[in-house]
């Protein structure tokens, strides 16, 4: 009996040691994203094309934008080719977790809920939620608080921080949620919704492209930090991304891209 018990304990100990060894190997830098990228010679970046000016389709069907240009700099720094993986927003985190790509670069707001699923590199830009509304409301609606009324229908994009912000700041209004920005804005332009709540950069560009049709409340009513998301337990990849971000800020490459996409509008002629 003692010998049998001893063998059982030894077997259990062996299984535990094997499990620990497997877990340690799974978390070693050799199996991290950075080593995988270098080994395959390819950086795979996930995003959803449609978020101006971060990522969008151009007239030739390609994908351009601030995040795309940052990804190009990243791939150049790594010495590998870049592959953009265009992914629907509602499945973009699951796609990252199942290794469809190495890093999610799609204007994602850093939230506690998302941080339970993924790790974020340091914030690379700060934005806020803003309001696009029907032009006829310009004289009566001066802030988001003025829209918190049951008579107003507010359109948002499902699953975004604009969706969450509308629910928090406009609990008395009627909320309509849509799969894309274009669908939501169509409701405002068609008079079926009073306003659209979404990120300031996108809203500002949209109004600039469609002068006289809608009105932008220029002051954002939230503060949000955007970050690049990666799979958890990969500190080496996260550290590399943070060093890369610090480097492009220091050598002014970041400033050049920010000016190109957020301060100037020459790129508008490239998109539909």
TrEMBL record:
Residues in the signal sequence: 1-26
Pfam families, sorted: SBP_bac_3
Domain of life: Bacteria
Domain Ionotropic glutamate receptor C-terminal: 42-264
Example of a GO MF term: ligand-gated monoatomic ion channel activity
Keyword Signal: yes
Transmembrane annotation, as ranges: none
Keyword set, alphabetical order: Signal
PROSITE patterns reported for this sequence: PROKAR_LIPOPROTEIN
GO cellular component: membrane
Domain Solute-binding protein family 3/N-terminal intervals: 42-264
Stated family: Belongs to the bacterial solute-binding protein 3 family.
Protein name, entry field: Polar amino acid transport system substrate-binding protein
Lineage: Bacteria, Pseudomonadati, Pseudomonadota, Gammaproteobacteria, Nevskiales
